[in-house]
Amino acid sequence: MAAPITYPANASTPLLELTRPKPDLWVIELKNGQDNRLATDFVNKSIKPALDEVERQWRAQWGEAQKTKKKELGNGALIIVGRKDQDKFFSNGLDFENAIKDPNFFPDTFNPMLTRILTFPIPTIAAINGHCFAGGLMMSLACDYRIMTDGTKRNTWLCMNEVHFGAPWPLSFAALLRGKVGDHRLQRKIALEGHRFTPQEALKDGILDALVDGKTADILAAAEKLAAKFSPNAAAGVWGLIKHDLYRDSIKEMGKRPQIPNAISHDASARAKL
């Protein structure tokens, strides 16, 4: 097993740890405080470079597979998990107050991260070991699979709660939701009702792929089993290429740079037209 890599580079308090417990498995552990708020530096200096490193290592191995004709060398899967020393949060969403102050946060920071995960060249699994809110839920939706605690050890929810505190959705949120959730009634439930899903509800509605009776270690173990099942699908080198086509419309929308109005400016504009 390779030594862990921590991010940001040379930071005294790492925000992320990348491990490779098996030749065909990588694990990104999110460690930004207890609740993993998706702040600018966390995304740009930790999550994005960690994703780059995973792909760099996998592609080196895949290239070796082409030379040696050992197809299994091209296997690969990535697990993203909340910090392992707790069972309360996967991610509590964006650092919202600072995100809305930066007009470039979504087009230059958050949207590219979502697109990167959405089109990643090997299977991605969100090991949701606690609450998964707003931007955190979007990050998990960008993954190919989602496994979550069943909430028996601790109450746990998934929720897009922007409608309750007056935050408009960036195009990337709606585009990703449309790409991953086909039922308009479920889209409405997530986006307009801000429903707080229990793990059981989320599994029934197809947001999750599996539930685990246990804590973080148990969720990781289940995620590793799923990774072992599907990591061979990366060996042909087309996993990411197929996703680029599968989610083409979402990717196109996520790459746009629109102005995101707030409720007050939208109200002023609407009044002017009446």
From TrEMBL:
One of its GO terms (biological process) is fatty acid beta-oxidation. GO terms for molecular function: delta(3)-delta(2)-enoyl-CoA isomerase activity. CDD domains: crotonase-like. Belongs to the enoyl-CoA hydratase/isomerase family. InterPro entries: ClpP/crotonase-like_dom_sf, Enoyl-CoA_hyd/isom_CS, Enoyl-CoA_hydra/iso. It comes from Ephemerocybe angulata. This is ClpP/crotonase. Signal peptide: none annotated. One of its GO terms (cellular component) is peroxisome.
